[in-house]
Amino acid sequence: DTVLFSITLDGTMKIGPTPKHYRDDYPAQAFNLTTLENVSHVLCSPEGELFCVRDKDLYRGPIPSKKNVDWFSMARRVGKKDWGKCRILFFHPNGELYVTTINGKFYKGPQPDNEKVSWMNKQATKIKLSGCFVDNSQHLGQNFHQFRYFCFVKDKTISNIISFQFLPEHGQRVSENPEVIEERVYKNKESSVQLKHSFTFDKTVKSSSSFAHEHGFTFEAGAEVKFKAGVPFIGEGETDLKMNLNTTHTWSFTKTNESEVRFSSSSDVEVPPGKAIRVVALVVKANLLVPYRAKVRTIFGSETEIEGTWNGVTHYNLTVTQKDE
């Protein structure tokens, strides 16, 4: 859904539900974010990125979702000097930037992304200004005189996950490699009798994983979104990816996940006289890409589905081998 982003006369950012009736009180319903100081121009791209001109330089970054955040610490500079010449800046719905200068020149071009490239001289096209248009308007409230800037942005800041589903049938193994988890050498070089040993171990193997989501959605700054779901794995002696639904794992959608799997084994080792035997316990380490589908709720209560990929690791297929040393 679309929400209304605004900046008051004192530079306070606000965001709230889009007014649809003249009795809607947007100024009261919107909540405060952070404050922008010493900026001359503010605008939002159709994708929901914020652009600001300060001291003749242009910056771009995400719209903040929490109070008291220094926006310029999150933003990056994408233009120098020329932006002090601008009178009006606005985005076309297709994402192109339009700029009028204080001396009446009119430009359009791609969204600035490199402070070392002059947008007006290298990227933009100078165009002529002609024609006009009149929109039919509707009364949508009052007290809007306290704002100096408005734009509509997509409500794409996720606050929590309602439901989550791994799609292992569409997953893939990116790579597989053997990994030694236990290794011992039993020596009987000096003896004339056979020795017996027990190769016993109980080992915990750790791995990490993370989630990538489709472009456009973000999370509240500093938030850790958690949910519970099964664990993707490959069964012993199998090749297909499956879900371990007997074990429910608490996943973090915004941070790296740490998980553990336990392997144990016990076997007899007989070492002949004058010999040495090496015993090695191996597992297969597989890097997996597993797509997922999730139903999420945004900070303004909208519900939508997103898709993405889980990038993780599984360990399976324990084997124990013995060979002469």
UniProtKB/TrEMBL annotation:
What region holds the Tachylectin domain?
7-131
Check the record and name the InterPro entries matching this protein: Aerolysin-like, Natterin_C, Tachylectin2, Tachylectin2_sf
Organism domain of life: Eukaryota
Among PANTHER family, the record links this protein to: NATTERIN-3-LIKE, NATTERIN-4
Protein's UniProt name: Tachylectin 2 domain-containing protein
The record lists the organism as Engystomops pustulosus
